[in-house]
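Ops channel
N.P.: pipeline sanity check, posting one input/output pair.
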């Protein structure tokens, strides 16, 4: 009960900031926490993808509990405030095609190649999904 009383004396802005810091730490650590928004879950899941691997928008949507929400994952990646720490460049389309990246697909391809991911295809816009990162 003392904690509840102490919390009442803390200004709402400080409580929100503390909650925000907890969520941010969880996201950067790749951990899902109760109370996270869909976007926060997406960013946390994306943070788990190791260098040299890729996953798909659909895999993240499934892991976030919304299997039909691949486009919503793309929207969350577009709003990723934690890039490059949360590596949205490691997320590709369901066919392995490089899609949607704020700095452009050539930069995304270069970042993936620099991590050891083979980018191929006639226009150098695809990755092999035989070793896709799954949750």
């Amino acid at each position: 009960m003392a904690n509840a009383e102490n919390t009442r004396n803390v200004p709402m802005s400080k409580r929100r900031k503390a909650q925000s810091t907890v969520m941010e730490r969880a996201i950067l650590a790749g951990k899902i926490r109760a109370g996270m928004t869909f976007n926060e879950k997406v960013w946390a899941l994306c943070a788990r993808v190791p260098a040299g691997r890729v996953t798909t928008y659909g895999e993240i949507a499934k892991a976030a509990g919304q299997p039909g929400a691949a486009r919503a994952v793309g929207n969350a990646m577009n709003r990723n405030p934690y890039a490059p720490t949360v590596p949205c460049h490691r997320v590709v389309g369901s066919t392995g095609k490089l899609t949607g990246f704020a700095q452009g697909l050539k930069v995304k391809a270069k970042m993936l190649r620099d991590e050891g991911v083979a980018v191929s295809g006639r226009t150098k816009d695809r990755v092999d999904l035989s070793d896709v990162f799954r949750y």
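N.P.: looks fine end to end. The chain has a mean pLDDT of 90.
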